[in-house]
UniProtKB/TrEMBL annotation:
<protein>
    <submittedName>
        <fullName>RNA polymerase sigma-70 factor, TIGR02957 family</fullName>
    </submittedName>
</protein>
<dbReference type="InterPro" id="IPR052704">
    <property type="entry name" value="ECF_Sigma-70_Domain"/>
</dbReference>
<dbReference type="GO" id="GO:0016987">
    <property type="term" value="F:sigma factor activity"/>
</dbReference>
<comment type="subunit">
    <text>Interacts transiently with the RNA polymerase catalytic core formed by RpoA, RpoB, RpoC and RpoZ (2 alpha, 1 beta, 1 beta' and 1 omega subunit) to form the RNA polymerase holoenzyme that can initiate transcription.</text>
</comment>
<dbReference type="GO" id="GO:0003677">
    <property type="term" value="F:DNA binding"/>
</dbReference>
<dbReference type="GO" id="GO:0006352">
    <property type="term" value="P:DNA-templated transcription initiation"/>
</dbReference>
<dbReference type="InterPro" id="IPR014303">
    <property type="entry name" value="RNA_pol_sigma-70_ECF"/>
</dbReference>
<dbReference type="InterPro" id="IPR007627">
    <property type="entry name" value="RNA_pol_sigma70_r2"/>
</dbReference>
<feature type="domain" description="RNA polymerase sigma-70 region 2">
    <location>
        <begin position="6"/>
        <end position="69"/>
    </location>
</feature>
<dbReference type="Pfam" id="PF08281">
    <property type="entry name" value="Sigma70_r4_2"/>
</dbReference>
<dbReference type="InterPro" id="IPR014284">
    <property type="entry name" value="RNA_pol_sigma-70_dom"/>
</dbReference>
<dbReference type="InterPro" id="IPR036388">
    <property type="entry name" value="WH-like_DNA-bd_sf"/>
</dbReference>
<feature type="domain" description="RNA polymerase sigma factor 70 region 4 type 2">
    <location>
        <begin position="104"/>
        <end position="155"/>
    </location>
</feature>
<dbReference type="InterPro" id="IPR013325">
    <property type="entry name" value="RNA_pol_sigma_r2"/>
</dbReference>
<dbReference type="InterPro" id="IPR013324">
    <property type="entry name" value="RNA_pol_sigma_r3/r4-like"/>
</dbReference>
<dbReference type="InterPro" id="IPR032710">
    <property type="entry name" value="NTF2-like_dom_sf"/>
</dbReference>
<dbReference type="InterPro" id="IPR013249">
    <property type="entry name" value="RNA_pol_sigma70_r4_t2"/>
</dbReference>
Length: 293
């Protein structure tokens, strides 16, 4: 098997690691491309291509996050991950996939240092042995174990309590129907009392600088968007975003925004609205035409 075939075997894994590390489709692809360049120029014999390539990608991501920290601290408004338009995963894979790809999970990872994030992801999401993780991040095995324990406690991951993912899908469909009709009372019943709306415009377009919180405030804001003459007419549809149901909003065959959700019980707990055009460019025009047509 030649170098390209070996690399292609692990390409999806490498992208999965990079995207969860960076929260960006574009940056993750750049990291994978850089890993390919380094793989091409590797002269020594590699016993485990998977371990070797995973280490390259993880180290590149750690270095990138360290250099990007200042940029993210100066980001205009709320920073949200770049949406990843995915296929609907198989039922048996959905719980794990949705949790590790969800906006809520990726935003929680932002409170970890780059090295802590790498250790936590490699162990908890990708099930790497501590020995391999230790070699990747240049820390002892006991130290890596301690990082994972601290990260678990710090993140306090909020796991969904819905009985199955079909319930979530139905909830998002009901949300879109109520939003389309401007049904304020019904829309409020779908959201938790302390629901939060996060909006990421990145200073490129108009967006709320601070999160909106509270069932009535968020519902009124969403209905106002639909009714305002200053807002272009949106064509909206439920799609799979970051492993679970989300909403894509189209204006003239261009992506206006993408909504992702976090749930608690049978209610929506958080709404993540990405409107920064720089984070929406990866959506295929083919997909947009199928939705608007």
């Amino acid at each position: 098997m030649n170098r390209l075939e070996l690399f292609d075997r692990y390409r999806s894994l490498l992208f999965a690691i990079a995207y969860r590390m960076l929260g960006s489709f574009t940056e993750a692809e750049d990291i994978v491309q850089e890993a390919w360049i380094r793989w091409q120029h590797t002269e020594s014999i590699v016993q485990s291509p998977k371990a070797f390539l995973s280490k390259i990608v993880t180290r590149l991501c750690i270095d990138y996050l360290r250099s990007a920290r200042v940029h993210r601290e100066r980001y205009t408004g709320t920073w949200l991950p770049e949406p990843l338009i995915t296929e609907r995963p198989d039922v048996e894979d959905r719980a794990e996939l949705a949790e590790s790809l969800s906006f809520a999970f990726l935003m929680l990872l932002e409170c970890l240092s780059p090295t802590e994030r790498a250790v936590f992801l490699l162990r908890e999401v990708f099930d790497y042995e501590y020995a391999a993780i230790s070699q990747t991040v240049h820390k002892s095995i006991p130290n890596c174990r301690q990082i994972v324990r601290r990260a678990r406690q710090h993140l306090v991951l909020r796991r969904p309590t819905l009985s199955n993912f079909d319930d979530r899908d139905l909830l998002v469909e009901r949300f879109l129907d109520c939003w389309d009709r401007g049904d304020l009372p019904e829309l409020m019943t779908l959201m938790a009392a302390d629901v939060t709306l996060w909006s990421d415009g990145g200073g490129k377009v108009v967006a709320a600088q601070k999160p909106l919180q509270g069932c009535q405030k968020v519902a009124r804001f969403l209905v106002a968007i639909r009714r305002s003459r200053l807002t272009p007419t949106l064509v909206s549809q439920v799609i799979t975003v970051n492993g679970q149901s989300g909403i894509i909003n189209i204006v003239d065959e261009h992506t206006h925004s993408i909504f992702s959700f976090e749930f608690t019980g049978d209610r929506i707990r958080s709404i993540f609205a990405v409107v920064n055009p720089e984070k929406l460019g990866t959506v295929k025009i083919k997909l947009l035409r199928s939705i608007s047509g």
